[in-house]
Amino acid sequence: MVLTGGICIGFAPIGLRLGLGELGPQGIAFWRYAFAAPLLLGLVFLIERRAPRPPNRFVLLAGTFFTLDIALWHWGLTLTTVSNATFIVNLGNVSVGFVAWLFLKERPTNIWFVAILLAVAGAAALSLGGEVGGKGDIRGDLLALGAALLVSGYMLCSKLARRRLGGIETIFWLTIVEVCVGGLILLLSGEPRLPATLNGFGVPLFLAVVVQIMGQGLIIAGLGRTPAAIAGVLVVVQPVVAAAISWVLFDEPLTALQAGGAVAILVAVWLSQRGKPVPID
């Protein structure tokens, strides 16, 4: 479930790229959350046969972390290169295991550390191994680093939230928090709140279904049954998916170094599942 969710999230940067003609990056994020919320509420009633239970504090924290992560990531992309920002943010995913080890006492297996090294090397090769698309800026890199830290907080709090709520309830309340925080960010950003035409809602609607409901929903559901350390490596598959889609849609073939990085990430995903972390008493 986590791996499939990571594959779905790989469509996020593609959708953002296609939708920027009608909305700004913060606007796309807000409408993604807004379209997903009522659909998720319907799924709660369909699956659970009842209204969603009240959220806990970990849901509120996770939703806030995630919304700020997306906001910083989008902001960082305007100040530094896409390759820099992508690599730095993915460091947040692979660091989830260390955060879970510290706070949840989930000790990873030895093979997990090998998977982490492969994942980091692969992400570096995939993100930084292509053509240089601009000049890096330390301000943008720091924003991406902040987003990476927020990713770790989001994954940790989401796993804690899943201990008392079902997967569909958790992603519903996360999305409600994201609508509130994302709406405030949109107001402060000064971006247009509505697209110029109705067609401008197409990309956010697509992202709501594929990325928010399917992607985030599957990851949250899977976190209830998957150690955080493994989940953090599994979601690193998303840049591989994004790169493959970009190759097809935008005629952006991978360099040999990038292709090697993609293979390294896939091997890391496979290795990360060889064994389960042992809880520390």
Descriptive overview:
The structure is a single chain. The longest helix is centred in the first third of the chain and has 24 residues, at 25-48. Mean pLDDT is 85; it is low at 277-281. The chain has 13 helices and 2 strands. It has a two-stranded antiparallel sheet with strand order 1-2. It has helices at residues 2-9, 12-19, 25-48, 57-77, 82-94, 96-103, 110-128, 138-161, 167-189, 202-223, 228-234, 238-250, 256-272, and strands spanning 106-107, 278-279. The protein has one domain (2-279). The chain is globular and about 40 Å long. Helix 4 (57-77) runs antiparallel to helix 8 (138-161), helix 7 packs antiparallel against helix 13 and helix 9 (167-189) packs across helix 10. It is mainly alpha-helical and 281 residues long.
Q: Which of globular, elongated, flat, extended, rod-shaped describes the shape?
A: globular
Low-confidence regions: 277-281
Percent in helix: over 70%
Report the oligomer: single chain
Number of strands: 2
Largest sheet, spatial ordering of strands: 1-2
Short description:
This protein is mainly α. 74% of the residues lie in helices and 1% in strands.
